[in-house]
Amino acid sequence: MNYANTELEATFKILKSARILANYAQEQGFEAESHNARPTYDHMGAILADSILQAGMNYRNVVKPRVEAILVSYADKKSVSDLVDLIASEGLEKLLNWSHQTKLSRFEELVTFMMKNQVITASELKERLLDDSFCTSLQRIDGIGPKTVDYMKCLVGIDSIAVDRHIKTFAKEAGLEHHDYDFLRNVFCSAADLLSISRRAFDSWVWNKLSMASSPQQSLF
C-alpha cells in the first residue's frame, strides 16, 4: 500500500468514527445552540494556573476557585513579567494557594519557559500556540503533554479539543475503540464540525456531560 492510499484510509477512518461520535452525541441530547465553550482568559496567571492545576483535579472545587482568586486579587497583573514579580514578592504557594511541590515546580518552570521564549501576554501565547515547533518545545517541560497544550489552546480561544479521560470515556461509550491521542483529537474535531459547533464548545459539552454524570455538582461554569 502506497503512502497516498494509507493517508486516504486514515482520513476515511477518522470521518467514519466522527460520524459515529456525532450520532451518539445527538442520541445523548446534544443541541448545538444550548452549549458554550470553555471560558477564555487574557490573564497569563489564570491561563498558566488553570493549565497546570487542572490535571487530575476536581475542576469546580479545586481549580476554578484558585483561578478566580488570581483574576480578582491580581486583576491588573496580567503578563508573565508581572507573574515573575509576584512569585518573587508573594511566593508561589500564596499565589496559587497550593502547597504540593510538583505542581508548584511545574508552574514555575512554565513561567520560566514563557519568559525565555518572550511570550509575555495572552495574545502572544495564542499566536505562539499556533506554531507546532513551539508546542513541541512546551512539551519538553516535565508533566506537560499534548493534552495540556490543547487545553491551553482552549483557554486562549483557539478552537481545539483536549483529549482527557472524559473524552476517552465518551468515545468508548459511543462504541469507538481506544486510539492514540492525535486520532481521538481529530475524530472529536471532525465530529464537532459535523454537529456545526465549535470544537471548544463540543469539548466543553462532553466534559460537562461526563462530569455531571460522575459528580452532579461539578461543571466548567
Automatic annotation (TrEMBL):
Q: Report the record's Gene Ontology biological process terms.
A: DNA repair
Q: Which GO terms describe its molecular function?
A: catalytic activity
Domain of life of the source: Bacteria
User: What's the protein here called?
Assistant: DNA lyase
Q: Which organism is it from?
A: Photobacterium jeanii
Organismal lineage: Bacteria, Pseudomonadati, Pseudomonadota, Gammaproteobacteria, Vibrionales
